[in-house]
Amino acid sequence: MSSTTTAAVVRPGTRTFAWEQVRLDAPRGDEVLVRVVGAGLCHTDLAVRDGHVPLPLPAVLGHEGAGVVQAVGDRVTRLAPGDTVLLSFSSCGACAPCGRGRPAYCDTFLHRNASGSRADGTSPLQDARGERISGRFFGQSSFGTLALADERCAVPVEVADEDELARLAPLGCAVQTGAGAVLNVLRPGPGDTLAVFGTGAVGLSAVMAAALTGAVRIIAVDIRPARLALARELGATDTVDAGREDVAGRLAELTGGRGVRHAVESSGVPDVLRQAVEALAVGGTAAVLGLPPAGTRVPLDIGALLRGRTVRGVYEGDSDPAAFLPALVALHRAGRLPFDRLVRLYPPERINDAAADAASGEAVKPVLRFPAGF
Questions:
Q1: 65 near 37, Cβ under 8 Å?
Q2: What does the pLDDT look like over 300-323, one tens digit per residue?
Q3: pTM for the whole structure
């Protein structure tokens, strides 16, 4: 049977979230119905809300969900009602990248995660007037009390209570993106240097992950002194205030003129990406995580790239959530990945305040905490 739920709907031209009654289809064979207890708010949600990332509106967004399974489709084998789960991105599970354990590069990734519809082009959501609206954002659309998710989005995790589950929600995107770029892609070795450009939730997750490696210098670059101070507390050995210091000069000084072996660009600002690439040592790699508006271009010195430098785009930390998210939970519980320090909880009725705080930098990672009965 279909379900009625309350969800935050973005309508064209409003640039705001409004809570509305919507109806969810009954789960299909490969879908799970999840009662959402927490949902992280990410800059990608804001980019879609503001029209910087194309997605048909009206829509229900949200792609860092955490909750409790209520019902499952007849082909679901990994989950059962009552399971506590984290929700991440969707993938087909059948293409060559999925077969190689790299579902973030699934052949159908963009359609499954950024079209607002299922793989067959349908949306499981309709508004109070009976009109279909975009759902299945990143396979889940978790800005609501219920989410109808692709089974492959849902990763089971054992928790003490629903408060803990809600605080784990950012693992589904921001934390796995930053941590995965370091642990799965760059993999710093003993004595390596790494610079992280941008200290939002993704960048600070990269800093925390780098602190788990043999990197001898972990350099955080940002324009906000408070964020740089937090980066030091989370594992950065050095910081560069890009608003007051010469970034190139300071990085050269910290690396003895050689440049950094690894760079993570998480801000989505084109000039910052250029700085990150120019900061690389010979043979170094820059991982590009930030998402600017579609069509954004960056001029790079081709001669510098020819000296073995690599610019590597990274989706979702190049991770397989089914394996990577439980590993991140284990690191967190061991006190080695304290991403909970980034989290600020908001009641769902304050979603627009949370969005404003995320945009301004007042909050690193807002998480909507859905109480029973909302």
A1: no
A2: 989 889 999 999 999 999 999 999
A3: 0.96
